[in-house]
Amino acid sequence: MLDIKFLRENPDTVKENIKKKFQDVKLPLVDEVIELDKERRESQAEADAIRAEKNKISKQIGALMAQGKKDEAEEVKKKVAESAARLKELEDRAPEVEDKIKAIMMRIPNIIDDSVPIGKDDSENVELEKFGEPVVPDFEVPYHTDIIEKLGGIDLDSAREVAGNGFYYLIGDVARLHSAVLTYARDFMIDKGFTYVIPPYMIRSDVVTGVMSFDEMESMMYKIEGEDLYLIGTSEHSMIGRFINKMVDEEKLPLTFTSYSPCFRKEKGAHGIEERGVYRIHQFEKQEMIVICKPEESMDWYNKMWSYTVELFRSLDIPVRTLECCSGDLADLKVKSCDVEAWSPRQKKYFEVGSCSNLGDAQARRLKIRVKDEDGNKYLAHTLNNTVVAPPRMLIAFLENNLNEDGSVNIPEVLRPYMGGKEIIKPQA
Question: What pTM value is reported for the model?
Fold first, then answer.
């Protein structure tokens, strides 16, 4: 959410940013909120003037009564009554105007960074850099569910009966591999100096609207019926929500966390064959990284964060690339974002396995997360988040890139301590 003062003083900049995001339907919102803001400020000035005049007249009435001038005092009282009625009218209108301004401001997108490429959607995202040599083996790589089934590691049919489409049972060595990847990712981030956290898996509506746009909320979040609670779509939501209405001492920054959680998402829309199996599902687990820092440090942290994900994937023998998200592919709160994509030997292309985002002060403004420096000055923090690893999607990349022709899967050296020393997972008879 933007600063209303910034919007008031830079309406053309805000409109140009809306155009860059190809959201022209939101252009009228800028003028609408400016008019409401003008009304709010004028009403506040009038209300303050009425209160000041009321105090002045009250003293005048007292003086007239003391002088025995009751008739004059009664006339003055009538003026006070008229002023009181107008003041009540202004006070009654104020919350309505305030709510309208807030609702509109939450729909106006954040100002994107100058480095963000301009494009309508994810088809116009820009490749930045490749890490590792993509390899296509001499043998045919099966679809990921076929690989897992041969390892005796999945039961989709039973999951459909129990919970419907978009769910799964992972079994045996594959389930262990799933947990091993998460545990390795946890330790990897702890070694980078991040503090490990397990957060709440449900959050209240004021946190939901503080960490994401209404469009994201509608397409992602599961609401708990009859309660003011939502299942989280990522641990970033509850991790940033932890600091709602808090003042952070500047000397404690940056705050760096790595959090584990299950994630729950609606994942609306039709999906092609490449998004079946365990690629796009309603429930998964993820290791996340979150940073709260000074504004001037946020871009440095942004670059560190995505590089950590690249480093982790390369340690598991998975080639990856980074992809700069274009303006039209950025969620409204984001200043800048890039995806980390893993190589798929079966598809002979890369696919998304993580996303790193700098949200500037948007979340901090909505949640009132402020920083106090040593001189007592207060300002809004910057917040960032990034996927460390999110199996089972990451598991697809792992299995395809470590698959042998006989259907067995190699376990990279860094992961073996988390797999009881196993070097390979073999197909079941």
Answer: 0.89
